[in-house]
């Protein structure tokens, strides 16, 4: 057990637990740790919408709790601790973060949302190491981590729920239950560290301490420190501990690197099968063998066989062996849902765009990186300053393909964007660059009191009706124009979905100024884009897209909110939807 050597390293040090939770106290006491309890004054009021994943919220809260105590003690308690431990436990279900219930009804809301379902319990932990310097300043080093445990609740009847709530147990517990007492009766199974659900991931904590005290404290070359915050003469620094260089050949690492090297082959196999309508064919006529498919798609039997087998290995097709005969093929569930061209969430249009436009651009990636410009001329023989007007809308075929691509993504992501915020106060919206209107239809579906005007270039608007042959909604209308030059339709909510990333800052400012001029105070502006993490380290989908983008750039939620602020909008809410696009609702002040 790693704990004992760590405990001996801690003897004689002032260890402080920045939490009043009796359960955390008991877990650490039972482990033999000696510490003082100084509950943190940090209020758990961080805006959850600003965090991409729930664990980031728990870790940030744990950090703030621990740092508050570490900074307060030298002044209020007149002693500097050696280590401060902060922790925060949250429960997440269906994308919601549940903390401690505020009253019985809140406890009821939480527990009924957990009934019969699996949920996750995250504890974020922060360990602050305090080093007093000669001039009485204190250096803080911060190490943080989190642990996730999955818990499944049984179906809870109303009687059971209220009996449990009336026991009083839920009130001071994240998610409204305590697994170590009566709440244990509600639980069907636990996957992961049980103590994490109680409130503290002891095992992970011990491993982390072991890493700090037994592996890296003495070897400075395994430790890199960087100053993060400078506050009242004290410094907050965070250390990242790096394991010794790993020269072993691990199969898992090899698989990771192979998947990256082969990624383009998988994409191209998918594009080719989609282009040759393999998924449509196997939908209308399942269980064909390779020769039959080859005949239908007018291709060689040998090539078709290889393509079908590759698609099986990628999880896009299933092959069924028939005794003494050639295998037959059919679509997997994934292909049925996303690859058939007539599926409600078909990505067929987007795949065609990737194959015909993005792929040629990526084949010139090296020049794009060297020159820092778009590669339309090399890929398509045309210079394009405005990618829409000069490239996509020059030919009817390319225009329709682009519109199909936008339409398919908007149908997949539209509902998540349209329902990201309460928009009931708005009656009229204008979707600028709204293309086929697919997003607008999702907004009217989600908000019965809202009418949406789709504003797009004339070349697009003239084709938009083809995309909604059966949908007649007189709350969606189309206006043709250029959003950089023409007057914008009046609305109390403007929508910019996948628009701003296409343009450099100067053009973004022109567009935002026009929107700001059209808005009165209280008007809304909903931005939907892939928001990069604040350190620009993820998501790779956004960063990879930037490699083939023309003049624009990908931005983080903060970067977008600063752009908007300069035009008199405040970013009211940010939502990471887990779908293709994130969303931010801003209000004109
Ligand atoms: C990347 S697409 C996004 C489409 C749509 N908002 C969505 O999320 O599905 C960009 C859209 O902006 C439109 N657009 C480009 N330049 C424009 C301009 N100057 N005025 C109006 N619309 C424009 C394009 O025609 C295209 O429909």
UniProtKB/TrEMBL annotation:
NCBIfam families: maf
Record's subunit section: Homodimer.
PROSITE patterns listed in its UniProt record: SAM_OMT_II
Cofactor: a divalent metal cation
The protein's name: Acetylserotonin O-methyltransferase-like
Domain O-methyltransferase dimerisation span(s) in chain numbering: 260-341
Gene Ontology molecular function terms on file: nucleoside triphosphate diphosphatase activity; O-methyltransferase activity; protein dimerization activity
Lineage of producing organism: Eukaryota, Metazoa, Chordata, Craniata, Vertebrata
Span of domain O-methyltransferase C-terminal: 362-569
KW S-adenosyl-L-methionine (keyword) present: yes
Any one biological process term the GO annotation gives: methylation
